[in-house]
Amino acid sequence: MRLRGIIRRIRYFRIIAVLSGIPRKLGWMRTSSKHIKVDDEENVIIGVPKVGPAALPSIIIRLLLSILFLFVITLSIAYVLYKPPTVIIKYLQWKYPDVVFHFPLPSSEKYVALTLDDVPSSETTKILDLLQRFKAKATFFVIGSQISDYPQLLTRIHNEGHEIGIHGWADEPSYKLSSVELERQIKKIETMLPLNPDRFRWFRPGSGWFTTDMIEKLKSMGYKIALGNIYPHDPQIGFPKINAAHVLSMIKPGGVIIMHDRRPYSSEQLELVLQGLATRGWRAQTLSKVQEIKTDIVAGKLLPLN
């Protein structure tokens, strides 16, 4: 009896051994040896499973799918930043009512607010000539440290019916400034602007970022933050035709266009935009003018065109 029991056990272990060897024979996995060294003597540990060639395609597919997923997510975020959907602009306008992102108008009102940052520069004269040629108006956001090089340009901007806002003393992120420093810079720039007690006080923070403290400080000084909803990222993208096409593809009644002065292609891209607007029957105006149109429509003073 004992002998039969021993034989049965031997057969059992042989079957287990055969079955355990099937995956290795099929190439599913193979046994690798781990070497450990203790007191200059190398010992081998057998039986550590290692992924075989047959499993590699599955791993590669998973890796490629992960990379593809991350790429799609990154591309989606970039697209939303480049062409923000209307629903996002509406949410931001609701979330921050003291910041201007756009002036929603009836579809019949073909007005947009044109704004230009980083003024004045050697390109500003060309820009003013273009605005005069196309009978367009704009709001110019000035950088204080650049004014002394082109003092006559601010006078021309004012005399030709355009609007002047403040962008900061230097081309830097405004949110990094303390409230005291922000106020000091604004007051210093105010002394350099043409006298115009009736002007609306617009401020556009450097880099486009703002804080709640900044909003409150500017409100106490009589200023309102103006951002926008049509921005071709022209400081980073130096292709006038692409930038102009982007602007024209985003035009909506009451939209706020953000473009930049001071680049060698600034006037070229603006000319393309103004041509496109004129061809389509749109009118470029200052921030204050478009805000006034919206206010009058809401108050019933100005009936939407049919």
Automatic annotation (TrEMBL):
InterPro entries in alphabetical order: Glyco_hydro/deAcase_b/a-brl, NODB_dom, Polysacc_deacetylase_ArnD
Domain NodB homology: 110-285
SUPFAM superfamilies from the UniProt entry: Glycoside hydrolase/deacetylase
Cofactor entry: Co(2+)
UniProt entry keywords in alphabetical sequence: Carbohydrate metabolism, Chitin degradation, Cobalt, Membrane, Polysaccharide degradation, Transmembrane, Transmembrane helix
Reaction equation(s) it catalyzes: [(1->4)-N-acetyl-beta-D-glucosaminyl](n) + n H2O = chitosan + n acetate
Keyword Cell division: no
A Pfam family: Polysacc_deac_1
Molecular functions (GO terms): chitin deacetylase activity
Segments traversing the membrane: 59-82
Any one GO BP annotation for this protein: carbohydrate metabolic process
Superkingdom of the organism of origin: Eukaryota
EC numbers for this chain: 3.5.1.41
PANTHER family the record matches: 4-DEOXY-4-FORMAMIDO-L-ARABINOSE-PHOSPHOUNDECAPRENOL DEFORMYLASE ARND-RELATED, GLYCOSYL TRANSFERASE-RELATED
Protein name (Swiss-Prot/TrEMBL): chitin deacetylase
